[in-house]
Design brief:
3 strands; mainly alpha
């Protein structure tokens, strides 16, 4: 009887030891498979024109970083399950932690790049750019400092992988570094998305009164932008709650991994939606009369008379009259006016 009890205790201890590693491995495997599938779909729907855009290349780079995180996580935790007494080298374990906490800065920068669609560098006064981008730039610099201090302290905490794991268990609860980083990440994303949606609403309000097709497309941009912010925000708040209430880092670490994947998937789905539109357009399937490409800038141009009532809302290569003195302004076939060609570096709204 005593031998059976001893065997059960040994098995239970082994299961409890590998349980966190199994959770990390399972989460990364499932989300990496989904992300790889989306990457294939992205290239399938992309066009030669869309692949030249900076946003497309940043998305591909972000996906590669996240897939690398999945590979490192699988390697570290798979080794901990199959051979718990001979874990991966310390450098591999540190690289896994670095790929989990550093890439969110890049993902948030991709979301911030949407503001360049509303405030192009080549046509926006430097003072305006400074007012708009000073806050997110300062926040990102502060986040870099916090992440650097956190990783430096983490590296010096142990001489081996086992000591790093033990230090992580001991210092997780109410650690000031992750609390500060995730709080600034919430503020950073909140600022970028709020400013983007507010300006999108203000600059496209005349379009809502002219044609329903364009209004539907803008509404889709609004929903995509909100989704890209809401889901990472929920995970950020959940991470802060876990680090301040849960003494075990398992749940918090799983949320960190999932948050990386969810953030990239949100940005990627927005790009897939836009790439699908580009793919249809390049395959000679006619778009409706009131549709427009979303890879161009929004702005205002004055009419030939120079009066404020003759403002034209520029949406890509089309311009929609927005005569504020008349309540029955509409979009007719003869009202399509071509603006100056957009520069090659035009940004995408998504």
């Amino acid at each position: 009887m005593s031998s059976v009890t001893g065997s059960e205790s040994t098995i239970n201890a082994f299961v409890a030891a590998i349980h966190p590693s199994f959770d990390y491995l399972l989460s990364c495997t499932a989300f990496s498979a989904c992300l790889f599938t989306l990457l294939v779909v992205l290239f399938a729907f992309s066009t030669k024109e869309s692949r030249r855009r900076v946003v497309f290349r940043l998305n591909v780079f972000a996906i590669c970083l996240t897939l690398t995180l999945g590979i490192l996580t699988g390697l570290s935790n798979g080794k901990a399950i199959t051979d718990p007494f001979d874990q991966v080298p310390k450098n591999v374990y540190i690289a896994t932690a670095a790929f989990a906490v550093i890439p969110p800065l890049l993902y948030d920068s991709i979301l911030l790049s949407r503001l360049f669609a509303l405030y192009p560098i080549y046509s926006t006064p430097p003072a305006t750019l400074l007012k708009i981008f000073a806050f997110p730039f300062c926040v990102k610099c502060a986040r870099i400092v916090v992440i650097s201090l956190s990783l430096s302290d983490y590296v010096r905490s142990g001489l081996s992988t086992s000591s790093l794991v033990q230090d992580q268990l001991a210092t997780w609860f109410r650690n000031p570094f992750p609390i500060a980083e995730w709080s600034m990440q919430v503020a950073d994303n909140l600022y970028s998305v709020t400013l983007f949606l507010y300006n999108l609403h203000v600059r496209t309000s005349p379009v809502h009164r002219t044609t329903s097709g364009i209004a539907d497309r803008i509404r889709q941009i609004f929903y995509i932008s909100v989704a890209n912010f809401v889901f990472p925000l929920m995970f950020n708040i959940a991470q802060i709650v876990c680090v301040t209430t849960d003494h075990s880092p398992t749940t918090g670490a799983v949320l960190v991994l999932i948050n990386n994947y969810v953030t990239v998937m949100g940005v990627l789905c927005a790009t897939l939606w836009f790439s699908g539109t580009e793919w249809v357009r390049t395959h000679n399937q006619p778009l409706s009369e009131d549709s427009f490409p979303l890879n161009t800038k929004l702005g205002r141009a004055h009419g030939a008379s120079g009066k404020s009532g003759d403002d034209i809302l520029v949406v890509g290569g089309r311009s929609v009259g927005a005569d504020t003195t008349s309540s029955d302004a509409g979009l007719t076939k003869g009202s399509n006016q071509r603006t100056a060609p957009a520069q090659d570096g035009s940004y995408s709204l998504v």
